Amino acid sequence: MRTIATLAAVCAASLAVSSFGRRPQRDRWGRPRIRAAVNLAEVQEAIMSSRKAVMAGAGAMALTALGYRAWYRGVFTGATGPAYASWEDWRGSGLDGNRRPLRAAMLAASPHNTQPWLFEVSTSAITVYADRSRHLGSFDPFRREMHLGLGCAIENLVLAARAFGIATDVQVADGRFGVSPGPQPAIAARIALGADPPFRDPLFDAIPRRRTHRGPYRDRPIAPERLRGLADLVASPTLRVVFLADAVARSEMGALIVEATERIIADPDMSLDSFRWIRTGSRDVLTQRDGVTIDAAGTSRLKTVAAKMLPNPDAATIDRIWLDATRATHTATAPVFGMILVPERLDMANAIAAGRAWQRLHLAATAQGLAAQPLNQPVEVIDRNQMLGRQDEFGSALAIFARESGWEPTFVFRLGYAEREAPHSPRRLLEDVVTTAPLATVGL
Ligand SMILES: Cc1cc2nc3c(=O)[nH]c(=O)nc-3n(C[C@H](O)[C@H](O)[C@H](O)COP(=O)(O)O)c2cc1C
Question: Of 40, 185, 199, 430, whose CB count within 10 A is highest?
Fold first, then answer.
């Protein structure tokens, strides 16, 4: 379009210039030819008006093309539309039967919004499967983060079931993660269902308001008693949360997160495996209903519009934007970092418990007006180093913040008061994640 407009302008301009440069013609007595001068003025005027018309036409075409691209890429709609409908109809109704709490389960956090869950529903139980085809590859080589995501879904499911008068008894599968498992579904938990009087936990109401917040946080500390309350909410004999609020610890943790991000983007496999889950256009979002969207990236409105209007960025561009945001926003505007610790990060039950704890903590933070974002790059690099049998320095660096031996970090995040609202991320349909027939599964 720009080429057409430029071409039209150049043609009109060259026509005009070729007429202007000529001397007026004279008759045989040497007098200027009046008629010719009149003609020249008319021609100039015609050229100017046709030039304006061409420019106006080209401008209109350019605007139409821009408008089409803006519409096609969802510039004005933002995070709205059918891919976001689950955030509205998440309560379901009694007609859903035992499926009802699944609508809340689907709104849980998951790594790169992979939504790696499948649910089999019967009259007496819900079986939660890891849909291991929805993995992050070398970014999550043991599928540890995948199981944290399943823990997040289980936590929402339990809260919603209780609100609807369904009692739950969660039995988590046990085992140790192996490297790069196959894509077949694997059982993560069985949840026996019963009846109980409905109980409305305040965390239940926070389910549709929770979202990962990647934008800037205010320079405002969080009261220590508030942090203690959040840690106590999820602590157990096999799970601990530590918070880092003092300036020195925060600066060291921030530097570690930035360094881990640099390692990830320098690793071509990790970079590509992450990129597969980045959704850049609204068509992508509508058809896939998963992944990390431009809208949820936490950049300014102007940058979001620019990113949507430009041609699809490649993995290297996305990596650069991610690193810049990690340095300038995520770590630079974090009044508090936190870490979830478990005895063994590659133990399945520990991973699911950590996911449940994160979802609970994030819901409680949301209910208190706090924003939160996982920043789990250091643990992702620990896993990658272990997969490749490479020496690792991130484990020992994080252990210093744990302040106690016998615990392994499995999840790093930041908390704070956000400067502005963050949008939701898309979700798949309920039908896509529910199966009525038992699945052919494999063990770990
Ligand atoms: C185990 C796990 C690890 C995650 N790691 C990151 C991370 O490093 N950086 C980030 O911005 N978000 C991270 N997230 C957040 C997900 O990207 C987010 O939950 C997902 O995109 C869905 O968005 P929502 O939480 O707003 O619903 C992580 C989530 C989980 C469960």
Answer: 185
